[in-house]
Amino acid sequence: MLTLYDYPSSQNGWKVRVLLGLLGISYRRKDVALFAGESRSERFLRLNPVGAIPVIELQDGRTIAESNAILTYLAEGTRFLPDERYRRAKVMQWLFFEQYYVEPAIGSLRFWTLTGRLELNAGRMVESRRETGTRALAALERGLAGGSFLLGDFMTIADIAVYAYTHRAEDCGFAFGPCPRVAAWLDRVAAAIGPDYPVEPFTSDAQVG
Prior knowledge:
Helices cover 49% and strands 8% of the residues. It is an alpha+beta fold and 209 residues long. The protein folds into two domains: 2-78, Glutaredoxin (3-Layer(aba) Sandwich); 85-193, Glutathione S-transferase Yfyf (Class Pi), Chain A, domain 2 (Up-down Bundle). The termini are far apart.
């Protein structure tokens, strides 16, 4: 059986849990105590040299890290990853967009806000992340001009990946009022995913102050 190494409050882990659930794949979940240093242990670093979650361990012991690489592996041969060359490349485009613009900006600001770290990172760093997040939402608004989902009329792993942190953007002060297409898309993705994947709050050991 596949094993998922996870941290409950991570949206990167959340997106993997969503796809596993939508595909009906059975798995074991092992939560990693990030703030107790477990991800930096020798054992965990053998699973992922970067020392980050999520990681999946296949039945034969091989591992895959990086959430969007995991999504791509799991979605192979399913409705969530097109076979056609161009459409597949467009999925990759949005996955790279998510990890370059959405997660570093919205993900970081959300983490800092919800764990009492925002003042520790005050100044140009916060301002820069907020500018990047605003640009990301504007780009997403433009990208959704052509259909109900990022690739048109059906949901792919691109939608799941981009949705993961985007739908929590209000947690750190972003507003969807200027982005009506994004707001409507969030509702469609939420309906397609269903209610079985709640977002878990940050654990007490993540808090500062």
